[in-house]
Structures are given as structure tokens and as C-alpha cells.
Amino acid sequence: MTIQEAARRSGLSAHTLRYYERIGLIHSVDRNGSGHRDYDERDLEWLAFLTRLRSTGMSIADMCRYAQLLRAGAHTAEERRRMLERHREKVAARIAELTQDLSALDYKIKTYRETT
Length: 116
Description:
Residues 1-69 form the HTH merR-type domain. It comes from Microtetraspora malaysiensis. By secondary structure, the protein is an all-alpha fold. The protein has one domain (3-115): Multidrug-efflux Transporter Regulator, Chain: A, Domain 2 (Orthogonal Bundle). The protein has helices spanning 3-10, 14-23, 41-55, 60-72, 77-115. Helix 4 runs antiparallel to helix 5. It starts with a helix and ends with a helix.
């Protein structure tokens, strides 16, 4: 599929896809006969995973490191797992903070409802 189609399906811009390729987050995408990028379903799955990592706060540098390790092969699986476990801990801590923030908001809303 074209870069425009991959952008539409992934929710990322064509500019972001080119940037991700340039910095090594995406492998060199295959090219079609006319030299245009030709994305496939595996590329979209990888983009979906990258989007999850980014939306949960993983830095671009850590995402690049993860992609580099993945391309290096199966012998890096342990390090990749550890990276994801550390990131998961950060996400869980952020969720706990947000839960406390939500409770504070709920309390304040309840107070206003009882007084108005």
C-alpha cells in the first residue's frame, strides 16, 4: 500500500512515517516498481505497536533502541522483555496517579452537587 494509505490506516501522518523510517523505527520499507514505498500488513502491525509505545509515554530514543534490538535477532529477547517490563512499571505508576487525580475530581464534583 502507498504511504498515504498506510498513513490513513495507521493514524499517523506520511511525514511521521518518513521520520520513523529515517530514524530507524521502521525498517527500510519495500519499494514498488516505480520506487514508491510499498507498506504491507506487517508494517501496519509494527506501526500500531509503535503507536501504543508512544501513547504510553515511551521516548523515541527507547523506541529506537527497542527496534534496534528487535532487528538484531532472537538473542536480544531478554533485553527487549526487560525494556517492556520497565516501561510497564512506569505506565502502571502513571495510571495510579491518574486514578488518584480522578478520585480528587470526583470528590470535588460530589461536593458541588451537594451544595448546589
